[in-house]
Hints:
The structure holds 2 protein chains of 2 kinds.
Chain A: E1 2-3, E2 6-7, H1 8-16, H2 20-40, H3 48-61, H4 72-88, H5 104-115, H6 125-136, H7 141-152, H8 157-164, H9 168-190
Antiparallel strand pairs in A: 1-2
Helix pairs in contact in A: 1-2, 2-3, 2-4, 3-4, 5-6, 7-9
Chain B: H1 3-16, H2 28-78, H3 82-96
Amino acid sequence: MSEGGVDVQSWVRSVQQGDEAAARALFNHLFPLVIKIVRAHLPRRTSEEDLVQTVFMKLFAKLDQFSGRVPLEHWVSRIAVNTCLNQISTERVRPELRWADLSEAEERVLQSLASTTDDLEPSHNLASRELVDKLLERLSPADRLVIMLMHLEGRTVEEVRQITGWNASLIKVRAFRARRKMKKHLETLLEGNVL
Amino acid sequence: MKPIDDLLKRLFKAAASVERPEPCAPPFALEARTLAAWRVSRSTGELSGLLRFFRVGLGLASVLMVVIIGLSLRNLAKEPGKEFAMPNVTMNLALSQ
């Protein structure tokens, strides 16, 4: 199996035999993928680097179980996602979002969204992302993950299935419920505060 | 489509357009720390493998010992008369004379 000109399979075999140079190469090859997942699903009280290290430790320990039938990236994604979810599951979901929790820019985003049916101006994008992040903090880890993958990273149900290992109907149901919760939070925010 | 559905859709669209910079190379300290932890876990793994081997060996030896003791006791119970065979013969001979 050769990915992007590198023979990942030979690295995997070498790491299984305890080759440190291969472990370093594999670490560097997979780091961008792992850091992306960790940053997207980072628990509030956990350091980013600690979580990356935990993911790689699990990955190296389970390398014997990698059959090579699926791309290594999918297998690694699943380990990283599950590690993050396990970590997040120890945290309590934050309570309801209040108007006072929003920054001025986020308030403007909401007001703009409520007052017009047009897309937001590009200058509002960053505040929109921050607002979405605040809404995501009110969801369970699994719901948060589905929304991140489908609506922020633009992944298909099939891609989410490969990353998480959940079946397609579960993903659709989770996405539907997560969106419903987000809409409820938005409606509560908008009631009495906009217009 | 309900207004709130449309609102959420537009919010997602704006939020998704934000590109977050990602480092392509890991910090050296993180790489060194992870590889060191892997090295330690490997040696711990080898040690625990050896420990597991000894534990299995000890278990097998215990089972073997129990089986042997059981067999010995069974044999003893089977032949209780042998202990008295010689005195009986001697006594019979003495009586017949």
